[in-house]
Each structure stands twice: as C-alpha cells, then as structure tokens.
Amino acid sequence: MVGKKMFFVKAFLRSPKLRDQVSFDDFLATYTKEKLTAFANSDIHNDRNNEKELSVILFKMAWEKDDPFFVKEATQKLFESVGYEIREHDVLARWNENSFLILLPECSLESADKIAHLIKSISEAKSFVNMHVKLEYAITKHEDNDTPESFMNRVEEKLEKCAV
Asked: Strand order of the sheet with strand 99-105?
C-alpha cells in the first residue's frame, strides 16, 4: 500500500514547474524526464506504517562574475559536483535561474541540514570555470496537509528570509 508521502512525492515530481524544467532545460537538468517518471512510479520508496520524513533543500547561487556563458558553464560543473554528494534516490533539479533543489525522501530536517551544510562547504571551497559560488539555503519538511505548492512556497519564503 502506498503511503501519503509517496502520493505527495509523485504529485511534486509531476508539478508543472519541475516537469517543464526537466523537460526543456536539458543542459542543466540532472534527472531526465524518464528518470523522474521512473522514480515517481517506483515502489522502492513507498512509505510504510512508520512513515519517514520527506525534506527539501533549496539553494540559491550567487556567482562572483556576471558573464552568462561562464555562469552557465560553472552551474553545470556545480551540478555535477553536487550530484556526487547526494544519494541515488534523492532528486537534484534546477528550480529557477539562480536556484536548485534537492528533494530528500526518508530524510529528517537534522540530516537535511547536515547535507546542505556539507554541499555548501564543498561547493564554496571549489572553483568552477575559474569562478567561486556563494550558496544560501533553506530547508523544510513535508507536513501532513501540504500540497506541492505549499511545500515549495514554504521553503522559498525561508530562503528569502535568509537573504534579508
């Protein structure tokens, strides 16, 4: 039997913003549309009676240069680097022009914070196409009454508060 969180994950992965980004931003999408569909339809991550938490990390990127060509290239290298730091069943995707998200099934807020801090530390210590990045991040977890929109609105609001 599929739990509430798996239904939520499936709805989230089918949300227009994420679906369109994965479908049309081939250069920066780490997951193909087919991989997202397979993930959403898999039974591997179905939650059971002891439902695990579902967390999301939203990162905002700030590059030290403003050259679109180099930013695009550096962002691709950053994505590759982040891809090595996450688990196989986590979802890494671009959220908008200057942010990306990691959806973390079966991950508590505390663990998500450790992962975010690790990714931020590793990424800020590296150079991508001779540029450095500054990352800000916000984390939230799935609540029982969440929709994909309310889930992402909450984490976007948290990220905006961090930037102020």
From this structure: 91-96, 99-105, 54-63, 133-141
